[in-house]
Amino acid sequence: MIEKQEVQELFPTPLWVVDLKAAEAAPFNARLKAEIEKIISPRPKIPPGSNWQTPQDLHTRAAFADFVQLVEVASRGVARFLQVDQYPMVITGCWANVNPPGAYHPTHNHPNNFLSGVYYVDVPSAGSCLALQDPRPLMIMPRPREFSRLTANAADVASKSGRLVLFPSWLRHNVPANNGDTDRISIAVNLMFTNFAETLSAPMWDATAGKDK
Fold first, then answer.
1. How far is C-alpha 76 from the chain's CA centre?
2. Would you say residue 24 has pLDDT above 60?
3. Are the C-beta atoms of residues 195 and 86 closer than 8 Å to each other?
4. Whether the Cβ atoms of residue 181 and residue 124 lie closer than 8 Å to each other
5. Do 121 and 36 meet the contact criterion of CB atoms below 8 Å apart?
């Protein structure tokens, strides 16, 4: 008969959530919001459901130096957790999204990067979330009595001002429609290993291992 039955959670998808102290987040976000408003003003007309986006070079602008420092500190923590901090990373793109009421982002991922993230500068009082999709292919999915992280095919991370969420760039995600009465403002960022081709792209196996040279 059965002596033991256990559950082993294999191949987890890590997610890192970084919350700033409220007292420091407020002035920090005010400065970021003011700079973003400068970039997109005057706001061009957009179709209903669309948003305004800045150029992808915010990480090169002096006004966003403190934000870049935040991302770099958080990403180094991620690298240490994954034990790949021996490989330096660099920001490859950074841009702001201004979602007016009704605007949303369809499901997507961020190719050719290792880490991606979103920082929330201003979130409507109605709230919002980042919706993450299960990367595993689904063949059969009976409806459970109650969904859990082992049975659901999607998960939400609540967004709030002063929160940075980092995740693997391959993880597909979307942002539901802004149901609030004010803009939802966020900054997206991508990171990749600085010298990927030089240090990391070679095959991980060695056909000569164990053979006489």
1. 15
2. yes
3. no
4. yes
5. yes
- Domain positions in the chain are 16-43+51-134+151-194
CA 154 to chain centre: 15
Is 0.85 topped by the overall pTM? yes
Neighbours of 197 (CB within 10 A): 8
Q: HSE on the CB side for 56, CA within 13 Å? A: 6
Cβ(178)–Cβ(184) under 8 Å?
yes
Please report, for residues 68, 99, 121, the alpha-carbon distance to residue 39 in angstroms, rounded to integers and kept in the order given: 17, 15, 15
- The answer to whether domain 16-43+51-134+151-194 has CATH 3.30.420.40 is no
Residue at 7: amino acid letter: V
d(CA 119, CA 182): 17
165-196 in b/e burial notation, b at 16+ Cβ within 10 A? bbbbbebebebeebebeebbbbbbbbbbbeee
pLDDT tens digits, 116-127: 999 999 999 876
Q: Please state whether beta strands 173-175 and 52-53 pair in parallel, antiparallel, or not at all (unpaired).
A: unpaired
* Beta strand segments in 114-180, E: 115-122, 129-133, 154-158, 163-168, 173-175
Q: What is the mean pLDDT of residues 5-21?
A: 93
Could you give the C-alpha distances from 87 to 31, 91, 188, in angstroms and in order? 32, 13, 22
